[in-house]
Structure formats: C-alpha cells, structure tokens
Design brief:
Length: 188
C-alpha cells in the first residue's frame, strides 16, 4: 500500500477530523493532496467547512448552558464578560468571523460567545460564514501554494504573478491585523 492510496482512502476523513478539532495543518495537507490529484478540492473545502462549523457548536452551547455557573465559581471573570458584552454590542460580526482565525482563542472565545447575549441563530449564521471563509482561505493557500511555488521554481515568476502574490499576502496580513486587534480588545 503506497502513500497515494492511503491519502485517497483516508484523506477526507483526516480533513474532517482535523477541521473538527481545529486543524489548519491538516486542511493545508488536504488541499495540497487535492493539488496533486489525490483528493477533490471542492469536497475537501466542503468537508472542512462543515466539520469546523460542527466543531464549534459544543463549545458555544457549553458556554450558553454552563456560563453562569462558571461566573459564579470564578467571579474574577465577570469583568471580562462585561467587556465581551460591550465588544459584542459594537463588533459582534467581526468577532465571530475572526475567532476561528485566532490561534489559541477559538475554544475560549466560543465559550465566551455562548455566555454572551448573541442569539443562537445569529451566531450559527455568522459561524457558518466564518467556517466557509476559513475553509476557502486555507484551501486556497494550500492549493495555490502548490501551483505557484511549482511554477515559480520551474519557470521563474512573472511580474503579474509576483504582484498577485503580494496582493494576496497584503490582504491576508490586513485581515490578520484586524483579527489580532479584535483579540486584543477581548483581552483588555
């Protein structure tokens, strides 16, 4: 049994499990496997979006159900909850959309969102949009990296390719900065 056969047999399951558990590395590997023809990119992207969305629900619902108990047990967290409520009132869309892009903040953020006043239906909608954006961006990065770097190393990069790569990197950097600011505001 060769590696290509293993990827074709278990690749989609690995993408689902990795995405459910917060696995950008697994999704990057899955999209690289799609670039090499071992998996289908639209299926990888769809599985990752659904699994990531489903992976968020238990934490949000745990925050919704057990948040009051946690606050009673740890009164020092009340200040942070009030701060979150203030931020949620002003920036709830950006917070929900950026949360999955903030390494190390996803689970705590989901618990906090569950304790907030955001409606469950609104959270579900925004979280689904976030899961789709996350899946598409990580898959595009993995799939695109395979093609771009292969061409750049084999043929040399054209000015158009370098400009496109710079624009993608700049857009990603700006989005990352916006997400980091949202995370910093949550910590204050």
């Amino acid at each position: 049994m060769d590696i290509a056969h293993l990827i074709q047999t278990y690749g989609y399951f690995a993408v689902a499990l990795g995405s459910f558990l917060e696995g950008e590395a697994v999704l990057l590997a899955g999209s690289l496997a799609a670039y090499h023809g071992h998996l289908a990119l639209p299926i990888v992207m769809g599985i990752a979006a659904v699994a990531s969305f489903m992976g968020d629900l238990p934490y949000f619902l745990a925050g919704r159900r057990y948040g009051a108990r946690v606050l009673r047990r740890f009164p020092s967290l009340r200040h942070r909850k009030r701060r979150l409520e203030s931020l949620m009132h002003k920036h709830h869309v950006m917070l929900v959309l950026c949360l999955r892009f903030l390494y190390g903040m996803r689970i705590a953020g989901l618990l906090a969102l569950g304790m907030s006043r955001i409606s469950t239906l609104r959270f579900l909608f925004l979280d689904l949009v976030s899961a789709i954006l996350w899946s598409a961006s990580i898959c595009a990065a993995g799939y695109g990296a395979g093609g771009v770097f292969r061409r750049m190393f084999n043929e040399g990069a054209t000015p158009e390719q370098l400009t496109l790569l710079a624009a993608i990197l700049a857009g990603t950097l700006l989005f990352w900065i916006a997400c980091r600011r949202a995370a910093a505001a949550l910590r204050d």
